[in-house]
Automatic annotation (TrEMBL):
Protein name: UPF0223 family protein
Organism listed in the record: Trichococcus flocculiformis
Listed transmembrane segments: none
Family annotation (Pfam families): UPF0223
Record-linked Gene3D superfamilies: BH2638-like
InterPro entries: BH2638-like_sf, UPF0223
C-alpha cells in the first residue's frame, strides 16, 4: 500500500470531501483490484457534484495522478471502451 495525499480543499464541506475521496478510492480500486463500471460511475457522478467543470476535474485528477501514479483519465477511457462490467488497469 502506497502512502500519498488525496487532493481536496480544506474549505469544502465534509460531505464534499467524502465525495472527492470516494472517487480517488474508486480510481485506486480500478488499478489495484478492479471495480465495476456501475460503482465507479456512481463515485464519479458524486465527484462531479463537487467539481462540475472539466478544468477542475483535470486539475485535481492530475494532482492525484502525480501523487499516486493512478490516472482518473485512463480509468474513464477504459470504461468508455471496455465492454466488460468490471474494469482493472493494474497488472496481474
Amino acid at each position: 500500500m502506497q502512502h500519498y495525499d488525496y487532493p481536496f480543499e480544506v474549505e469544502w464541506s465534509k460531505e464534499e470531501i467524502v465525495k472527492v475521496i470516494s472517487l480517488w478510492n474508486a480510481v485506486e480500486r480500478a488499478y489495484e483490484s478492479g471495480i465495476s463500471k456501475e460503482d465507479f460511475m456512481q463515485a464519479y457522478r458524486e465527484f462531479k457534484t463537487v467539481l462540475p467543470s472539466v478544468g477542475q476535474e483535470k486539475k485535481y485528477g492530475n494532482q492525484f495522478e502525480k501523487e499516486s501514479g493512478y490516472s482518473l483519465y485512463k480509468v474513464l477511457q477504459e470504461i468508455k471502451k471496455s465492454e466488460k462490467n468490471k474494469i482493472f488497469l493494474g497488472e496481474r
